[in-house]
Structures are given as C-alpha cells and as structure tokens.
Write a structure and sequence with these properties.
This protein is α/β, with parallel strands linked by helices. Helix content is 31%, strand content 24%. It has a five-stranded mixed barrel with strand order 5-8-7-6-9. Strand 3 and strand 4 form a beta hairpin. Helix 1 packs across helix 3 and helix 4 packs across helix 8. The protein is globular and about 50 Å long. The two termini are 34 Å apart.
Length: 273
C-alpha cells in the first residue's frame, strides 16, 4: 500500500519544476478533452513518466502530462490524460494524482469525461453536470490503511460534488446559452463498453450517463478535502439505445465537435471559482 512519504516524493519532484507557483484549481481532462490544457498560459509541463511513483496514461487521446500555468487569471494544473482501472492500475493508483495535487496546495478540482448517454430524453453531444454517482463495482481508492494526513477512515459521501460549484456551473451555462443537463454518472470498470442489459439496469437504478473514469478521483478528492465539480460530455448514446456498435472514434469525434462550448463553459466557471 502507498505511504504518505511516496505521495510527498511525487509532490516534491513537481515543486522543483514549478518553483513558487501557488496552485488553486486542478483540471482532470478526459478522452478528447485535453485541448483545454493547451490553452493554459505561461505553461510549465511535467510529463507523468518523470514523476516518482506516478502512473502513465495509455488511453487514446491522453497526452500524459501535467500543465501548470494561468487560465482565466487562476493558477491551474491541467491533467492532459488520466488513469483508469482498465489499464491495469489499482483504484488507488488511478487517483494518485489527486492526492499529490492536494499536497501542492490545490483546493478545487474540475473532473471531466466523455461518457455514454443513458437517459433516452437527452441527446449525444450535450453536456451534463454531475450531481452524484453510482459505483457498485470493485473496491475503493480508499481501501487499505487510512492515511490520516488526507482524511478520516470513514468519509461521508453525501456531498462529494460541491453544491456551491454546481450552482456556479448552472448559472454560467445559462449566461452563455449553453445547455447543461444535470444527472447521475454510473461508473463501469471497462475496457469493454457496457452491454445493453447493463445499460437498462443502470437506467432503472437512476443512472443518466455511463463511463469508465472520474468516480475514483471524485471519492479521493472529497476524502482529502477538495471541492469537486464534475462535467460529462455525452459523447454517444449508450449501448442498446441505438442499433449500432460503440467505438472510441465516436467518442473522440464528439469531443472535438463539442470543444468550443465545453472550453467556454470550463473557462467561465474557472473565472468565477
């Protein structure tokens, strides 16, 4: 199991690269959404493979680097690529960066992803604000000996996604004229897409979008005291809703098509946070 010393080693290495930079907001950029990191001003880039104990991204469309700099006047760290359970990592490794960013002084995190749309009243290409999640599978990123420096042994999960940040997001979307659904993200481990039967079950249980990321990071962020804001790009209709197979290309194409409105919403929210 990981130790506080190992997390500190990751953080100290990054501190040597960024100097006196005071981190405020972290962005975790999902499949096809890494372009937001390219918009960071005065960037200092730290590749994952250089950081002690850090995992490395292998998913398509993930550059695998941290970008520190300015965005909308705030000091940010943009993760261009994340880690997934299906890559062979434990859930603790999947959420490793969140704890390291907390040690670097981060107070808020914006988690983004591209996911399949379960809600039949919605459409592919829309954006969803994550208000809650469902996770029935696997263990927890908090499994094992608790590291008290990050949080308590049995954290409350009633408000993982910060209400105040959700209000900012809704108000901002309205001001920009961007449609923003509000819904529940259903976590699946992957890498295979869900079966039509699994999607029907998720719908009955209250899921609005199905994806393979975000939830381990959200749990870990909440545990260590970060405020959490989550967005989903509904990149495609989930399995069985349309009579067609799912593909990674469809996800990346949808992210590219929605890049303008997604970037505008993220940047405007950051400005207000």
């Amino acid at each position: 199991m990981a130790t506080i010393e190992e997390y500190m080693e990751s953080a100290e290495f990054i501190k040597e690269k960024i100097g006196s930079f005071q981190l405020e907001i972290a962005l975790v950029l999902g499949s096809g959404l890494g372009y937001v990191g390219d918009e960071v001003e005065e960037p200092v880039i730290v590749p994952y493979h250089e950081i002690p104990h850090f995992p490395v991204s292998t998913a398509p469309g993930h550059k695998g680097q941290l970008v520190f700099g300015k965005l909308e006047g705030k000091n940010v760290a943009a993760m261009q690529g994340r880690f997934h359970y299906y890559e062979g990592y434990s859930l603790q490794e999947v959420a490793w960066a969140i704890r390291v960013l907390r040690l670097l002084g981060c107070e808020k995190v914006i988690l983004t992803n591209a996911a399949g749309c379960i809600n039949r009243d919605w459409h592919a290409g829309e954006l969803m604000l994550i208000t809650d999640h469902i996770k029935f599978f696997l263990d927890s990123p908090l499994r094992g000996e608790n590291i008290d420096e990050f949080g308590c042994r049995f954290p409350d999960s009633s408000h993982i996604y910060t209400k105040e940040l959700q209000e900012i997001a809704c108000q901002t979307a309205e001001e920009l004229g961007i449609g923003l659904r509000k819904g529940v993200y259903f976590y699946f481990p992957g890498p295979q897409y869900e079966t039509p039967a699994e999607i029907r079950a998720a719908s009955v249980l209250g899921g609005d979008a199905a994806g393979m990321s975000t939830v381990p990071e959200a749990i870990t962020a909440s545990h260590c005291g970060l405020q959490v804001l989550g967005f989903t790009l509904l990149s495609n209709m989930a399995a069985g809703i349309l009579d067609q197979p799912l593909s990674e290309k469809e996800v990346l194409d949808a992210a590219k098509a929605a890049s303008g409105k997604f970037s505008s919403l993220l940047r405007a929210c950051i400005r207000k946070m």
